[in-house]
């Protein structure tokens, strides 16, 4: 929108406080006298007086209807270009100069007026007085309460800062009673609020617009208060949405999110265009949904985000040649939301000439093919196509367009074959929608069909856009569940679902999380959903602690080395390294944008590399089952890359990428890492650095909630020799890093959080491990069979002696225990 000139002028700010009170008194007296006179005239037998009373009542009724409204409406103010130019340019402008004061509601004007009077009377910061008086309004107080702020404490803090400002001004003798300076502040502030009101598509400048404008004036005292109560100025505008839609019983809410569009009045059914040249489409209508009808009814069309995708769609449909678009995005990315927004743009005449006055119709392929033979389906399709061409005012939307590729039967044509001549002939615009996987597997292989469409990738909305969407959604959910939802709960639902619940895109993942939290709160008879309630639900879903560590958990983290040593013998450097990594992560000091940690465990076989990985999976993710294990010796050739991250044609799913999509909170163990093909090793450069990997379908797989451990036996003989020579692990590690460049590129080695060296196990270490295994066996017997197993230290020592092997570490021990103890016990049982 092009704003030519804004200014603020109101005669009431040019006169004295007493004069304003007098003017109000006269105005109120006039209304009282008029109302009294109207009643008297209505009771009069004189006909002229009676009709005069009726006239006065109409006047008073009109004033009551517009009670609480501004003198002028912003919607009436906005003038569009002439219709043909408007459809081409897609822009509007405000003619001439605009006096912002005309668009302030009486409540908003009263706030500015009181703040103005207070500042002139007793000094202080004008913006602080605006905040103080806004804070006294019930709708603003309600919105602040939604931000998990103690309103009483905040009100007290505002008064304290105002008092301190006044005292400081009195002591310094500083005179800020400057009308001209104050008028400039009012004008600047009102302009910001006016722009907010336009962006929010409000009729007037309301109290919520004034409050959100406070976050944009960059005043030191205002910023101090907002920071003190952890209020992000950029989020004030979103929180104020609550105040706009909670103003009494007459403020109706739509049934669904799409209905938050401003409903147009007197909109006709769009079967016939304005030129009366279109023709009816009975067969199409029986197998389709008319999105323009839904938009006209105010049931859809609400769009936040996806501006680039929407603008590209409009441009493609406006082309005379190949006006066909293909929307590609994962479930929940917003493809159909964009379609609904286009329908709303059409019914509002905010589209270019070439698609002006069209119908946007979505065909339901499943209804079309259900219970019909291939010949019947082909016949229906041909009739529908003929109807569309004959009507001349249809934009056809085909959801799940990949279903058209499938033939109707053996040797039969597909719907795509029937449509291809039409698509290539540019007879009418077509919009298709599909998913990345289906596009790769079915559509991309058909070059003629693919080339007929312009591809538009529909990505996930941003977190800020998702917050706005969820605030509107919360208004509906509050009514359904009869539970108030705090802004903190909404923000947590967005941030935590985006971080931990990657199986779905925003905002769908956050909406599901919020509904689950509301259901849980409803069962507990809780009437206010707060940020902590969302954290509880997420922790239950992912089985990982994400709240601030309490006393018990803090003690566990501080004693993590001792806890690990209950299951693992020795290997102090490795235990210390993983313990440090977990403490950094839980304290919020872990590296942003990467995995929780990524280690390279180096050492001979059977010394505890895999065992420590299992323990770490249990400690961090709650179960050893959270460990995803890959034998990298299976990925030694170039062709194996397709098995690891998926084939380019989409037919083979990647074992790594699919595993992380299914289990985003896991420990990834890469055994014998050095044996993997060099191209696969290069993949991990990006994973270790950005915790992101794009799979064969173009999906971004997220590794931020994973721990990655690569193990290797490389240079294990060197480690053994240096330890036997008496060298310390620290010295060995430095020398080993240089030797590892024989197997790994330096840039890959540098991306590990730590390279951990495991030493060979001694005879005494094996005895301790044998002791652990006897303890585990005894526990299993007692739990499953009710048998108490007792054993002497000599037995443990003997098993350790038989199971000791300097080459294979503790691996033979399990076999010895099984042969000598478990098999005998099994027979006895």
Task: Explain what you see.
Strands 4-6-7-8-5-9 form a 6-stranded mixed beta sheet, with helices on both faces. A 5-stranded parallel beta sheet has the order 13-14-17-12-18, sandwiched between helices. The protein is built from 39 helices and 18 strands. Helices cover 54% and strands 10% of the residues. Mean pLDDT is 82; it is low at 80-90. The protein is α/β, with parallel strands linked by helices and 829 residues long.
Features:
829 residues, alpha/beta, 10% strand, single chain, 6-stranded mixed beta sheet, 39 helices, 5-stranded parallel beta sheet
In short:
This protein is α/β, with parallel strands linked by helices. The protein has a 6-stranded mixed β-sheet, with helices on both faces. The radius of gyration is 36 Å and the shape is globular.
Radius of gyration, CA atoms, in whole angstroms = 36 Å
Count up the helices. 39
Question: Largest sheet at a glance?
Answer: 6 strands, mixed
Give unreliable regions as ranges: 80-90
Shape: globular
Q: Classify the beta-strand content into a percent band.
A: 5-15%
| Side-by-side strand order of the widest sheet | 4-6-7-8-5-9
**Class derived from helix and strand content:** alpha/beta
Give the strand tally.
18
- State the share of residues found in helices, binned by percent: 40-55%
What is the average per-residue confidence, as pLDDT, rounded to a whole number?
82
The span between the termini is 84 Å
